[in-house]
Amino acid sequence: MRGLLLKRKNGGGIIITHDGLFCRGAVDEQKALGDEVTVEPPPRRRLLWWLTAAALGLFCLGIGIYRIFLPGVWAYVTLDIGPSIELALDSQLRVTGQRGLNEAGNRLLSPLDLRGRPIDICVGYLLEQAYAAGYLCEGESSVVLVTVAPRHDREKIGTEALAGYVAESFPVRQGGVEIVAISTDLETRRRALGSGLSMGRYLLQQALKRCGHTVSADSVREAPLRQIEEGHGMTVAALVGNNGSVLIRAWDTPGIGPADRAQALLAAPVPE
After folding, report:
1. What residues contact 6, with CB distance under 8 A and at least 6 apart?
2. Is the model's pTM score more than 0.85?
3. I want to staple 208 with a disulfide (CB 3.0 to 4.6 A). Which of 24, 143, 212, 215 is the partner?
4. Which domain range does residue 223 map to?
5. Across the chain, what does the average pLDDT equal?
């Protein structure tokens, strides 16, 4: 902006333009009063401050809306086969978060995003993926451990319902499965994560220790559940106490498809 230099002040100057406007800014130090000069207006710091404040306000508003509308975690469910996986659920029993709790679990989850799907659909999908990856095999009897730690309303998802989700979608056609479902609390989950274990495997480790076995977290983190049973001469159902259910689905008839085979379901409290 050009005009006549009227006054010098603080290393700059004040000019009057041909339109009669006053403007303050930086001027050439060689210029004298009365010279026609070009000034560079100072940066609009006040505008920048307001823009920064507005951006910060919008950010805080966004965080508030996110917390209001994002479903909170209602419960945590872990599924142990060989892979160990944890799913966070909202009050509608839809998955809001997922994590692998051992190497096999990380591999199984790496291509998957289960968020927004109902828990029963996710359990079935994970079982199918475990079957495709060779963790569940035809002609073998399998053990699946599913554990829930609810934050609210323990009656909304019981251990029998969890075991039922596994039984209804278990992909092995020629073989049976023993499903152990356990209910625990958030403190147990905290201790389990501190040991690098799923809730179910942590409960197994603690039960084995109470029975006099020396069991490290590393020794139970990756091992198939049937291998743990055989290695210690105890069943998973007996190890975890009576705070849950056992569901057994058995068929061994070759050539019978999933829609035709007879299912034998036995639900009972977990034996001590």
Report:
1. 13, 14, 15, 16, 22, 33
2. no
3. 215
4. 75-269
5. 79
